Automatic annotation (TrEMBL):
It comes from Pleionea mediterranea. This is Heme exporter protein B. It comes from the Bacteria. Required for the export of heme to the periplasm for the biogenesis of c-type cytochromes. Belongs to the CcmB/CycW/HelB family. Its main location: membrane. GO terms for molecular function: heme transmembrane transporter activity. The lineage of its organism: Bacteria, Pseudomonadati, Pseudomonadota, Gammaproteobacteria, Oceanospirillales. PANTHER family: CYTOCHROME C BIOGENESIS B-RELATED, HEME EXPORTER PROTEIN B. It is found in: Cell inner membrane. GO terms for cellular component: plasma membrane. It is a multi-pass membrane protein.
Length: 220
């Protein structure tokens, strides 16, 4: 069931490539503006690079949240999938995985370029990619809970942001700390372990919570 839903989501996303590129363009544009808006000094850019990259990645992922369920809900496809026997948990997992593959993964691939642009230490680039690799899936699954709660609401984007942003803060903190530690030559295993434990916890619980919330939202 999940495989069929993943194929369906991939085909739908392939039809709207322009929307797919928006988070990536946002990430590249905003991070590249920091040297102009803050300072072109290499030392200063190296200090702020971990926080800048993580904040911009977080905001870029949030750009894709509203389309996670919205179109399927508006045209009735979401209701039809559940009525036809598709598990809400499977739907949530398929959408969250697809969202990560087509939104967050390109950001991770592009992050070394941004790190070089912001004069990030070469030793910190692997830590940055690893932290994003562990942190962004957690954000996508948390976002699935928020979207499941707000999918039936008109203009629920603001409420969605209020729900997910506080839950993103620990991910942001540990992700930026891992990159900072690597840049200073310190061990960053502890920060990565926190991110990994958060990922395991989120993947284990979030699909069930989001599935229950989705079922309630659609039945109202």
């Amino acid at each position: 069931m999940i495989k069929a839903l993943l194929v369906r989501e991939a085909k739908l996303i392939n039809r709207k490539k322009s929307e797919l590129m928006n988070p990536l363009f946002f990430f590249l544009l905003v991070t590249s503006l920091f040297p102009f808006g803050v300072s072109p000094e290499p030392e200063l850019l190296a200090q702020i690079a971990p926080g800048v990259i993580w904040v911009c990645a977080l905001l870029a992922v949030m750009l894709s949240l509203d389309v996670l369920y919205r179109e399927d809900f508006d045209d009735g496809s979401l209701v039809q999938m559940i009525v036809s026997g598709a598990s809400p948990v499977s739907i949530v997992m398929a959408k969250a995985i697809t969202n990560w593959l087509f939104t967050a993964l390109p950001l991770i691939v592009m992050s070394p370029l941004i790190g070089i642009l912001l004069n990030l230490d070469n030793d910190a680039i692997p830590a940055m990619m690893l932290s994003l690799l562990l942190g962004t899936p957690t954000m996508c699954f948390i976002a699935a809970i928020g979207m499941s709660l707000t999918v039936g609401l008109r203009r629920g984007g603001v409420l969605l942001s209020l729900i997910v942003l506080p839950l993103y803060i620990p991910i942001l903190i540990f992700g930026a700390m891992a990159v900072n530690a690597a840049a200073m030559g310190h061990d960053y295993t502890g920060q990565l372990l926190y991110l990994a434990s958060g990922l395991v916890l989120t993947v284990s619980l979030a699909p069930w919570a989001a599935g229950a919330a989705l079922k309630i939202s659609i039945s109202e």
